[in-house]
Amino acid sequence: METQMGAVSAAFYFLSQHPFLALPLYPLAALAIGGLLARITGWSGWFCLGIPGLVLGAMSPFFGSAVNAIFLNAAGTTGSAVIVHSEETSSTLNDSAIWYYEAVVRTADGRDVETSFDTMSASIYPWRNQILIPPEGERFMVKYVPGFPRNIAIMVDQSPYGRKRRIAEDREPVETAAAKLAAAPDNARFRDTYRDALTVFIAAHGKDADPTLLAEYRAKLAALGNAPAR
C-alpha cells in the first residue's frame, strides 16, 4: 500500500513541479480514455474527452500544486521541514520574482530527506490567494506520503510562521476599531465595535497569542465594561 501511495505521490509531484512539461499529458490521457471507451461502447463521441483534457492541461500550471496539497493533506503523514537555501530566479509571476528553495524534510521516523520547490510549484495547505512561503531557517510543519517524502505540502496554519501571520491579520480589525474610537470617544457604535473586536480576538487566540498582548487586550476589554473571554 505504501508503495502504491508513493507512486501516486510521485505522479502528483511531477504534475505540480513540472506543469508545463506535464501539460500535453492531460489531453493525451483523456484521448486514451476516450479511445478505450469508444472501443468498448462503439460510440466515437468519447473522443471528445480530449477537450476537457486540454482545458485541464491549460489550468494545471495554476492549480496543480493546490490539488497536490489537497491530496497530501488527505493521505499524508505529518512531518517537519526547514528551508536551507533560497535564491531569486530570473523568472517573474505577476511582476514579482519567482524564488527557488531547497529544504530538508524530517520524516515521522526520523529520516532527513532533501527536496526543492519554487514560488509557483510550492504546495501550500490550505490553499489561499496568497503564496505563503516559510522564512529560511525556521522549522515548519508538512505532510508527505512515506513512500515518496520529497513531495510535501506546507501546512501553513499548523506552522509557527502561519500562526504569527494569522494573529497579525486578526489584530487588524482590533486596531482599526481602536483608532475609530480614539477619533470619536463618545461614539457608542465605535465603542461596541471595539468591544466586539477585542472579544473575538481573545476568544480566537487566547492560547496562541503573545501573553503580554492578551493581557493588554483583556485590560482594555474590561475597561469597556465587559469581562474578558477565557
UniProtKB/TrEMBL annotation:
Keywords for this protein: Membrane, Transmembrane, Transmembrane helix
Source taxon at top rank: Bacteria
Residues spanning the membrane: 20-38, 45-63
Protein name listed in UniProt: DUF3592 domain-containing protein
